[in-house]
Amino acid sequence: MPELPEVETTLRGIRPHLLKQGVQKVVIRRPTLRWPIPEELPGLMERAAVEEVSRRGKYLLLKFPLGHLMIHLGMSGSLSLVARDTVAGKHDHVDIVLGSGLILRYNDPRRFGCMLWVEGEPLAHPLLASLGPEPLGPLFDNEHLYQCSRRKSLPIKSFLMDSKVVVGVGNIYANEALFRSGIHPLRKANRISQQRYARLSDVVREVLAAAIAQGGTTLRDFVGGDGKPGYFKQELQVYGRGGQGCVDCEATLTEVRLGQRSTVYCPQCQH
DNA sequence: ACGAAGCCCTGCAAGC
DNA sequence: TGCTTGCAGGGCTTCG
């Protein structure tokens, strides 16, 4: 389940192998992702070189002379770099064969991801145009959260996971950040003080930065690896721990469903 | 305009 | 053992 740290780790892992590399061939085995992969993709990319590799939220952007390839990993997608003769597995839907002899391979069992072509300014694309600030960028702070939340009566957890508010905070990190800032996930967004938002924005940055730092430890092995660093788990304090003891006060962690998302919190520590 | 629910999809685990 | 059922979840889309 790629959250922002995993996407960032993927970006850092693939970028050095893609920059200035020519695309020899694009193989689309299964075009039916969230939206169909454009049939004209091979014609647009083949014999062209990758000029830039970047990220906006959880969307990866590969710049080519004629436009950008926009990739989202959904919740089960991954990109890996494999040697040219590597046999494709069950959910290996797309191969981008590079001049270097490596293949950038897109795998996505649940096919919630997408691979689209964008002409012109990619940030103007409908999927990107109304995204909120990057959580690790300068525009994300308590002031932003506070101002955004003034007319929002939805639960803070839903608010935090809204990509128009801030990108890249998925279910796992929303649970963790709220625990670490002592905020009850069901509290209404407009019932939280600016001081508490200050703590929350700090914690969101800390948690994501720490996860990225750990994802970085697997970068060395990205080529040929499965591209799925195992940074989470050990540091998680509430996610996946419903019914177990709070790491701070030992109270039993409560698990509820919010939206259709598993939500875990400490009834003692979070208000 | 806002908020909640629905939906896409497959793999895995639990229950019968 | 093999079926069915439920759950996981990002985020766009639809409904109220």
Task: Please tell me about this protein's structure.
Helix 4 packs across helix 7 (194-215) and helix 6 (171-181) crosses helix 7. The chain is built from 7 helices and 10 strands. It is of the alpha+beta class. The structure holds a DNA duplex (16 and 16 nucleotides).
Within the CATH hierarchy, at the fold level, what is the topology of the largest domain? N-terminal domain of MutM-like DNA repair proteins
CATH architecture of the largest domain: Alpha-Beta Barrel
Rg estimate, integer Å: 20 Å
Which class best fits the helix and strand makeup? alpha+beta
Order of helices and strands: HEHEEEEEEEHHHHHEE
Q: What's the story with the biggest beta sheet? A: 4 strands, antiparallel
Give the overall silhouette. elongated
Tally of separate helices: 7
Helix content: 25-40%
- Give the C-level CATH assignment of the largest domain: Alpha Beta
Give the overall pLDDT as a whole number.
89
Q: Which residues form runs of ≥5 with pLDDT under 50?
A: 217-221, 224-229
Distance between the termini: 28 Å
Strand order of the largest sheet: 1-6-7-5
| Count of separate structural domains | 2
Number of E strands: 10
CATH homology superfamily name of the largest domain: MutM-like, N-terminal
